[in-house]
Specification:
The complex is a heteropentamer of chains A (244), B (291), C (422), D (387) and E (270). With 291 residues, chain B is mainly alpha-helical. Chain B has a single domain, classed as ABC transporter involved in vitamin B12 uptake, BtuC. Chain B has a two-stranded antiparallel ribbon. The termini of chain B are far apart. With 422 residues, chain C is of the alpha/beta class. In chain C, the strands form three sheets. In chain C, strands 9, 10, 11, 12 and 13 form a five-stranded antiparallel β-sheet that branches. Chain C has a four-stranded parallel β-sheet with strand order 2-1-3-4, sandwiched between helices. In chain E, 39% of the residues lie in helices and 22% in strands. In chain E, helix 3 packs across helix 5, helix 3 runs parallel beside helix 6 and helix 7 packs parallel to helix 8. Chain E has a domain of 171 residues: Rossmann fold (3-Layer(aba) Sandwich). In chain E, a hairpin with a 2-residue loop joins strand 1 and strand 2. The C terminus of chain E is likely disordered. The chains are: A alpha/beta (244), B mainly alpha (291), C alpha/beta (422), D mainly alpha (387), E alpha/beta (270). Chains in contact: A-B, A-D, A-E, B-C, B-D, B-E, C-D, D-E. At the B-D interface, helix 3, helix 4, helix 9 and helix 11 of B face helix 8, helix 9, helix 15, helix 17 and strand 4 of D. The structure holds adenosine-5'-triphosphate (ATP) (2 copies) and magnesium ion (MG) (2 copies). One magnesium ion binds next to helix 1 of chain E. The site of one magnesium ion (MG) has 3 residues of chain E, from helix 1.
């Protein structure tokens, strides 16, 4: 699906601290995601998962720490610059631009890239991936169903041809079959193109099923970091943080 | 019949001015979701700058681009320095800031250029051509129509067909999502204001020969320009043109056949009527999903 | 520095000047309100500075009875609510001796009751409405300029006498100014000769279409003489519209809207080449003051001197002349109020009358009349920004039926008649 | 909890989301549950405050000069107008650029009634101002309920521009551009022979302002106020909760218009006139500016805003009076300073003056902007985009 | 389908078109009092649209809607509360700028008695009313375990708590029919279990219509399930019946149902 020249990049997070006023959302988080692999970030509600992704992508200014994409520090960069370093985010809860059409939303994803021909190609690939979108190209995104919007958000992130993809609860509101497909797709992209993925999921089970590595957050701190099977087998962890 | 024709024609050429103001408001609305109450005052101010050039012996064709250029700079400046800090606050804060700018610019213009009426030249003759014994349009009016139509067409194309236009709209609708997609939202907002101010300046320099130049010369034009924009649908440049022309003709008919005192009331009546039928203006997209 | 009087209305009887608001041993403080900003400001905003300049000149010549005149004028933006505010501020806070030259009918009519209740002299309201001449009801209020009815009558008679048999149309502002003027015109002209009367709104002037509909209508009706009660901007718009639609009637324009300097300024750069001051050629108008273009007139040269000294940045036009001429009349009235003027003695001085100043028609203040000038003199504009008088000054009364008579020829005074205008 | 009512006044009517209380976790239970005795009644608390305020104002008005009293009288009717608008815009989320025209309705009502041979008592006249303006407000509100954001702004602006046109169309009755003069007679004799008229006027407008604030405070702490806020925040959810959105919006408009009508009547009484020139678009815009400057949605803010509307222009003109400047500069400097002040206040105090006061009060509470998830799932602080 | 008591909600022959798109195609279903009915189907199948028709947000192109046996022709959303219907939205739909307690109190407004006049005058009648609403709201919030956040703004709360507040706002009206649109999205498995408990507790008290993509939850709490695909009802039946329906598996479930039984170690090898 993508040329091999655009290899995935490794993501390195060191001691990241993020606060909202008095609320400490991230308390020195360190995570390392090797290029071409999937790391699942798990944790209860309010653990700081979304805050982690938002801090990485620049939507929230982190207080201190380091964020390295392929060794390049993107800490504290504006989101528009982070995107250009090859790291894209699918925000929690869809984040499509309701007043634009499906097609415009998708095209936006690739606008920052200079390769026009490939941009168009990437949009068509997204349509191929999500047929419901293909049938609704000219419709305003606000008329889409919840699941269709989620597809649009995902498709749009892929149009950017990111090297690192930050997924915040991609299965939110998706039918089980689509969820399975998407997980499969993410896995395939990693395997085939070397995409690097940081995957936040409520649904720990399905996240761990595709991930190469798992990290558990609680109150803004990493409380566990291991391979999926070990995490899933840890009863304490499961009861305390993963809820299954 | 003569009279009807000439009333219609003068309504259309006046309407073109409203269209230009409406266009500038539509642009700012599309670009930043702010209604710029300072638009008229900004146009007035740049027209004064053009006037100063003329005073110092400059030619109209030097003054004209200078007005548009300073409009560009002024628009960018106001957005960057004054509106930017309140853009993320409650929406009405930006409105009050633009009100402040509006009052400030009127004061500044009075202070720098004096309060009195100034005449402002038209670049072409304003004597009507005669068709038989019907007096029709003047070369200057043709110039008005052409220049506003050109600017409108360019801006429409910019928004609808170019990447920059798409970026600008994305930035306006949802700044945060747009940034996440690599759009330099700040720049887009500034660009939107700058372009809008150019359209506004165009209106200012085109209307000045008819209403003279003074610190309040755009007040009335602004109000009807805003009305036109709302009638057309604030999101639609085409709507701005149609709204402007329609309003111009209407006002001309009312002044001619019913009396000038009914002009504002009839504008109100038409506005209310149209909004009752189409609450988001004539050219709005109606497909909205609420849940 | 203001007055030292404590209570308001503390000017009963002939008490010492120390107790009179606005009066000190060396100064007399007076006030006024004008639109200095806002849509009504152009032109009118020059009057205050011009009057102030003349007061400064008078003060330099020793003032009036040894006191210098301090003139505080404030901006009301032509908003009557603001007028009430600034006038109260002048009376209560600045403790002015009198209000002199407050401008505007809608504005000033809202403070006359207050000023009369407070017994504050309210002289020379800058408006040609007929409201100010009611000595019974408003003993402290007076007009100054001729009212629009009188002007309409004299213009109407001129048209009737000189354009007999021609079709006449009116263009007038849809308010008291225009309507009073029309009443005056109608009292003189045969109804049959008047083919159309077109009112316009001032709000139209700020729209691109302007008053073209009205002029198209007059043209369609075939009016050969168009008499206008228009403000200068409307006159200019009318002239330009006529040029645009190829309409060439004889224009007869009220004094308010015919100041050549203002009009030349408005028409000057209007359009490349073609138009400009020459559009003014042949316009009939009227005036009660000397013509600003008449450099030989001693008053005009005095005004010009004062203008060049104090307010060189303002154009030397009818508004400036208006403010200066009013200032001179006030100085004369104050002079007549004695060494220790009181509000009462000021009004008495006024009602004694007999003032001769720049005016070319007589100022006829008396116990029964607070009207001021009661006549005008017909003028004709040339195409070079100048004008000349056509015939003798005429006076008439407020009654539509009142006869129009020639004014006495000695109505005008000379600079230097008063010590302070040397 | 003795200081509770005072805090309530400071936070006026618990107006808006971003107030300190709402973000602080503690006081779960509203005031009246925890209170015993007479203070548990809203009316008692608010009335008590109004009486205290009235006494303070009595002292104030009696100790200043006549001109200051006149300015205070002006503040009084501005308070009424701004408070009414803040209910509409702050609590209910509808913008109006047409309140100047609604004030005009009140002013002309007052003028026409007071012009009659045997005029009605002023109080009754003011009540009738409220009634007529409310009726007009119902009409405008019914149209407005269909409109949102800038469309509403445009329509109400056209209303503000259009309505004064009526006066020249019916110039016989309404006096055209010159409008109508109003005379309200001297203060009652019982106050003494030389009781300043300005102080009497201040008393009239301040009483009206206190009553207005009292009623609006009652309203906004009640279920009706909550309904207003719910509609402002999310129309769809409000409908689902059984709220008739359009009717609520009309109601808010009527309440607000009634205030505007009262303010207009008071203006007519204070400045002795009803004139189209006094009710220009500029008035509508400055009332809105007052509401935003003070802090939208807060009644205390309405008071600050009204004071600012009187004080800022007066301040800027007296400042520029102090210098000996050229004519053009002298006439225009106040305008320039006023415009600049509007911008500066907005930049310095985005939550309005009331927000500034709150911030001072809550300095140690560490108030943070509260994130709010909107429909598209992105976080926005404080404002939801206009729809 | 001929029962003595009328269905809490009955929909027949319902069709909704948006331009060329058929969102609902001749749909018929009913919910009996006290019954929990699940509506499932792929994304875009028309589930939310179905709710929107019931709530009066969308006018059907054709079809019939009955509430408690009475046909509703021109239903407007604000009438729902009066008809005893409450709904949660697919998003959250909380009022962002008022406290959680007030959010819930808004839901209880149908129980209020005092009118505009007593509110304006601040009469004790209005105070009493407020107190009653507040007590009612707090009681329910307590029941749902959110009483401790009553004074906070919704936006400052974790998502699941916000969802509960939204649910409390719907429940506080004491509805006879409750429409839940994806109440479990964004919840962890444990929280989902709690939600399941809660919904089960509602069974018998009111009719519930549940749109959800989390099959464990749907299977666990529903008496009956209706499956939509491309706007058509493709299956109805008990959870057990639906779970094994060929068409449902193909259109919607994929192999998710099996996956619920898989252990993680199995899944990792996929
Ligand atoms: N903009 C904000 N301002 C203040 N506090 C915030 C903000 N965003 C998040 N928080 C708080 O920070 C903490 C972490 O929130 P975050 O959204 O990162 O959690 P999460 O793990 O993504 O939870 P969820 O599963 O609900 O998405 C929570 O306590 C939350 O209330
Ligand atoms: N107002 C509208 N205009 C146009 N199309 C619409 C509108 N509302 C819904 N649709 C379309 O109707 C279809 C059904 O939408 P609906 O929201 O009911 O789906 P859903 O079953 O709730 O899906 P999801 O599980 O993804 O939330 C979708 O394809 C959607 O795009
Ligand atoms: Mg999250
Ligand atoms: Mg849905």
């Amino acid at each position: 699906m993508r040329s091999m020249s655009e290899r995935g990049a490794s993501l390195e997070v060191v001691d990241l601290v993020t606060t909202y006023g008095a609320v400490q959302a991230l308390n020195g988080v360190s995570i390392s995601v090797p290029a071409g692999s999937i790391t699942a970030v798990l944790g209860a509600n309010g653990a700081g998962k979304s805050s982690l992704l938002r801090s990485l992508s620049g939507l929230v200014k982190p207080k201190s720490g380091k964020v390295l994409v392929d060794g390049q520090d993107v800490f504290g960069m504006a989101p528009e610059d982070v995107v250009q370093r090859g790291m894209s985010q699918v925000p929690e809860g869809r984040g499509v631009i309701a007043e634009l059409t499906v097609d415009e939303n998708l095209r936006l994803g690739g606008l920052w890239r200079s390769d026009k021909a490939d941009r168009a190609k990437a949009v068509e690939e997204a349509y191929a991936l999500f047929p419901p979108l293909d049938q609704r190209r000219k419709r305003l995104a606000m008329t889409l169903s919840g699941g269709e919007r989620q597809m649009l958000a995902l498709g749009r992130a892929l149009v950017a041809r990111p090297r690192v993809l930050l997924l915040d609860e991609p299965s939110l509101g998706l039918a089980p079959r689509i969820t399975a497909q998407i997980m499969g797709l993410v896995r395939r992209l990693c395997d085939e193109t070397g995409l690097t993925v940081l995957l936040v999921e409520q649904n720990a089970r399905s996240a761990l099923s595709v991930a190469d590595h798992g990290v558990v957050l609680n109150l803004g701190t990493v409380v566990a970091s291991d391979d999926p099977a070990t995490l899933a087998a840890d009863d304490n962890l499961r009861h305390a943080y993963l809820g299954f | 019949m003569d009279r009807f024709l000439s009333v219609t024609i003068s309504g259309l050429s006046g309407g073109m001015i409203y269209a230009a103001v409406a266009l500038s408001l539509v642009l700012i609305w599309r670009a930043t979701r702010v209604v710029n109450f300072a638009q008229g005052a900004m146009a007035m101010f740049t027209t004064y700058l053009a006037f100063t050039v003329l005073e110092h012996g400059g030619s109209y064709w030097v003054a004209f681009p200078i007005a548009l250029l300073t409009g560009l700079v002024l628009g960018a400046f106001v957005e960057r320095v004054l509106v930017r800090p309140v853009e993320n606050g409650p929406p009405l804060n930006a409105v009050v800031v633009t009100l402040g700018v509006f009052i400030f610019l009127q004061g500044l213009a009075g202070l720098l250029f004096g309060g009195r009426f100034r005449s402002f030249p038209a670049p072409f003759s304003n004597k009507n051509y005669n068709l038989g014994n019907v007096s029709t349009v003047s070369p200057f009016e043709i110039f008005i129509v052409l220049s506003v139509a050109l600017v409108a067409a360019l801006l429409f194309a910019l928004f609808q067909y170019t990447d920059v236009g798409l970026r600008m709209r994305a930035a306006a609708f949802s700044g945060e999502v747009a940034r996440m997609l690599g759009v330099r939202v700040g720049r887009m907002l500034t660009l939107g204001w700058a372009l809008a101010a150019v359209a506004g300046s165009l209106a200012g320099i085109l209307v000045a020969p008819s209403v003279f130049l003074h610190p309040n010369n755009m007040d009335g034009v602004f109000v009807f320009g805003f009305t036109a924009a709302v009638i057309g649908g604030l999101d639609s440049p085409v709507g701005a043109i149609v709204g402007g022309l329609g309003l111009g003709v209407l006002l001309s008919y009312v002044a001619s056949y019913a009396g000038g005192d009914l002009q504002t009331l009839s504008a109100l009546a038409v506005l209310v009527f149209i909004l009752m039928v189409k609450p988001n203006g004539l050219f709005s997209t109606t497909a909205t999903r609420r849940v | 520095g203001g007055g030292s009087g404590s209570g308001d209305g503390g000017d009963k009887g002939d008490g010492a000047s120390a107790n009179v608001p606005g009066i000190t041993a060396t100064t007399v403080t007076i006030g006024a309100h004008y639109p200095l900003t806002g849509p009504a400001a152009p032109g009118y905003s020059e009057i205050g500075p011009a009057a102030e300049a003349m007061y400064k000149y008078i003060n330099e010549n020793g003032g009036v009875n040894g006191r210098s005149i301090e003139f505080k004028y404030k901006d009301d933006g032509y908003n009557p609510a603001n007028t009430v505010d600034v006038v109260k501020q002048l009376v209560l806070q600045d403790k002015v001796f009198a209000i002199v030259g407050g401008l505007g009918t809608p504005t000033h009519s809202k403070v006359t009751n207050y000023l009369n209740n407070q017994r504050v002299p309210d002289l020379f309201v800058a408006s040609g409405a007929r409201l100010w001449d009611q000595p019974d009801k408003h003993p402290y209020t007076t007009g100054w300029q001729p009212d629009y009815l009188i002007e309409g009558k004299i213009l109407g008679k001129y048209v009737k006498d000189n354009f007999a048999g021609k079709k006449v149309g009116y263009l007038y502002q849809n308010d008291d100014f225009g309507k009073d003027g029309v009443e005056g015109l109608d009292s003189q002209l045969d109804a049959a000769s008047v083919v159309d009367k077109q009112p316009y709104e001032t709000s139209q002037l700020s729209q691109p279409t302007g008053i073209a509909p009205q002029l198209s209508a007059l043209k369609a009706k075939g009016a050969e003489v168009v008499v206008t009660f228009t403000i200068p901007a409307a006159t200019a718009v009318a002239l330009l519209t006529n040029a645009k639609i190829g309409y060439k009637p004889q224009m007869v324009v009220t004094n308010v809207g015919s100041d050549p300097t203002t009009l030349t300024g408005l028409l000057g750069k209007f359009s490349k080449g073609a138009v400009g001051a020459q559009l003014l050629d042949g316009i009939i108008s009227d005036s009660y003051l000397p013509l600003t273009s008449d450099a030989a007139d001693p008053w005009i040269s005095l005004f010009k001197k004062v203008h060049d000294k104090y307010i060189p940045n303002l154009p030397f036009d009818g508004n400036v002349e208006y403010g200066m001429a009013q200032a001179i009349t006030f100085a004369q009235v104050l002079n007549g109020a004695g060494k220790n003027p009181t509000r009462q003695s000021l009004m008495e001085s006024l009602e004694k009358g007999g003032f001769k100043g720049p005016g070319v028609t007589p100022l006829r203040f008396s116990k029964d009349s607070h009207a001021g000038f009661t006549g005008v003199r017909i003028t004709k504009l040339d195409g070079k920004g100048g004008a000349r008088f056509l015939q003798e000054a005429q006076v008439t009364t407020d009654e539509p039926s009142g006869a129009i008579e020639n004014a006495p020829s000695d109505a005008q005074g000379k600079p230097g008649d008063d010590p302070f205008t040397k | 909890m003795a200081d509770k009512p005072v805090e309530e006044l400071a936070h006026a009517d618990l107006a808006d989301g971003n107030n300190v209380q709402a973000t602080t976790p503690s006081p779960v239970v509203g005031p009246s549950l925890s209170r015993r005795g007479p203070l548990q009644y809203t009316l008692v608390r608010h009335l008590g405050l109004a009486v205290l305020g009235g006494l303070a104002l009595l002292l104030l008005t009696s100790s200043v000069s006549a001109y200051r009293d006149f300015q205070i009288a002006n503040v009084g009717y501005y308070v009424v107008a701004v408070a009414g608008l803040t209910v509409l815009t702050g609590l209910n989320g509808q913008i109006s650029l047409g309140h100047g025209a609604l004030m005009m309705v009140g002013a002309y009502t007052a003028a026409l009634l007071l012009q009659r041979e045997d005029p009605l008592p002023v109080t009754l006249v003011l009540v009738l101002c409220v009634v007529t303006a409310a009726a007009v407000g119902a009409l405008v509100g019914a149209a407005a309920a269909r409109l949102r954001g800038p469309y509403l702004a445009g329509a109400t602006l056209a209303f503000a521009v259009g309505l004064p046109g009526l006066t020249s169309h019916y110039s016989g009755r309404l006096g055209g551009d010159n409008g109508l003069s109003v005379s309200t007679g001297p203060p009652p004799e019982s106050l003494g022979f030389d009781f300043p008229g300005e102080r009497w006027q201040a008393w009239i407008t301040l009483s009206a302002a206190l009553i207005t604030l009292l009623l609006l405070a009652n309203l906004s702490t009640s279920r009706v106020g909550r309904t207003f806020r719910a509609v402002r925040d999310d129309e769809v959810s409000a409908e689902l909760a059984g709220i008739h959105v359009a009717r609520t919006q009309v109601l808010a408009f009527v309440v607000s218009a009634a205030c505007a009508g009262l303010a207009g009547g008071l203006l007519a009484v204070v400045s002795g006139q009803a004139t189209p020139g006094a009710f220009s678009v500029a008035l509508s815009l400055s009332i809105l500016a007052g509401a935003v400057l003070g802090g939208l949605g807060s009644l205390a803010g309405a008071v600050y805003g009204a004071v600012a509307l009187v004080a800022l222009p007066s301040f800027s003109s007296s400042t520029s009076d102090r210098f000996d400047l050229g004519t053009d500069v002298k006439s225009n400097l106040p305008l320039l300073v006023y415009g600049a002040l509007l911008v500066v206040v907005m930049l310095a105090a985005p939550q309005g003056l009331q927000g500034g006061v709150r911030r001072l009060l809550g300095l140690f509470k560490g108030r943070t902007p509260s994130p709010v998830r909107n429909d598209s799932g992105t976080d926005v602080s404080v404002s939801t985009p206009e729809r | 389908m001929t029962t003595a008591a009328p269905a809490a909600l009955r929909i027949s022959d319902l069709t909704v078109r948006f331009g060329g798109l058929v969102a609902l195609d001749d749909v018929g279903l009913h919910v009996s009092p006290g019954e929990v009915v699940g509506i499932i189907g792929p994304n875009g199948a028309g589930k939310t649209t179905l709710f929107n028709v019931v709530c009066g947000f969308v006018r059907p192109t054709s079809g019939r809607l009955e509430v408690q046996g009475k046909e509703q022709r021109k239903l407007r959303p604000h009438q729902l509360a009066g008809l005893g219907i409450a709904r949660t939205l697919q998003g959250l739909g909380l009022f962002p700028h008022i406290s959680c307690l007030e959010n819930v109190m808004v839901g209880a407004h149908r129980h209020a008695r005092a009118g505009f006049a007593s509110a304006l005058l601040g009469l004790p009648r209005s105070d009493n009313d407020e107190r009653a609403l507040r007590e009612r709201a707090l009681a329910l919030m307590d029941e749902l375990g959110v009483a401790h956040v009553a004074g906070r703004l919704p936006g400052s709360l974790p998502y699941p708590l916000q969802k509960r507040v939204a649910l409390a706002r719907a429940l506080v009206a004491d509805p006879q029919v409750l429409l839940l649109d994806e109440p479990a999205s964004g919840l962890s498995n444990a929280e989902m279990d709690e939600l399941g408990e809660l919904i089960r507790g509602l069974r018998g008290r009111m009719a519930v219509m549940l749109v959800e993509h989390h099959m464990d939850l749907v299977m666990a709490v529903c008496d009956r399930i209706v499956v939509l695909d491309f706007g058509k009802v493709i299956a109805t039946g008990t959870p057990a019946e639906v779970r094994t329906d060929e068409r449902v598996l193909a259109a919607y479930l994929g192999d998710e149902v099996d996956a619920t039984d898989e252990t993680i170690s199995d899944a990792v090898d996929v």
